[in-house]
Amino acid sequence: MLLRLPRRAYVLFFAVVFLLPVCAKALNTPARTGVSLASSPVGRWKTFSSRTGEAKSIIAIWQKDGTLYGTIEHVFDPPVPHPRCIRCTGSMKDRPVLGLRILWGMRKDGDQWSGGQILDPQTGKIYTCTLRLEDGGRVLRVHGYIGISLFGRTVHWRRVDSGH
To answer: What's the whole-model pTM score?
Structure first.
């Protein structure tokens, strides 16, 4: 015997059965795939001013073919309405800061990621970079340097909860 259900019930059933797997794949983040947040820097990170300690930006980090990349997703209190990377050189010169790729080429190397570079959009300088997760994956230690790792600068980014 067939149940007589309203048409909406059938539409909802098929949407759940067929669209949910597609949506789940699109939302392929470490937290949703069972990969521990403590083991991957993929996600959204809040950066802070080393001078004032105030939040500066949100950086989105993603992985493609085993390599990490990052772009500026949000800028808190920008100095001008639509900031551009005026001190950058080459192809990045005068590009909008929002959406600007500032991190590239990072590959897993033991308990850290290295081999890539990071751009400081305030100075336009590009540094060799290493990334290391701390505090159970809630903090990302970002170390940029030129030449020797000993002579560099380290900043700490805080993971942004998925709800924010």
So the answer is: 0.75
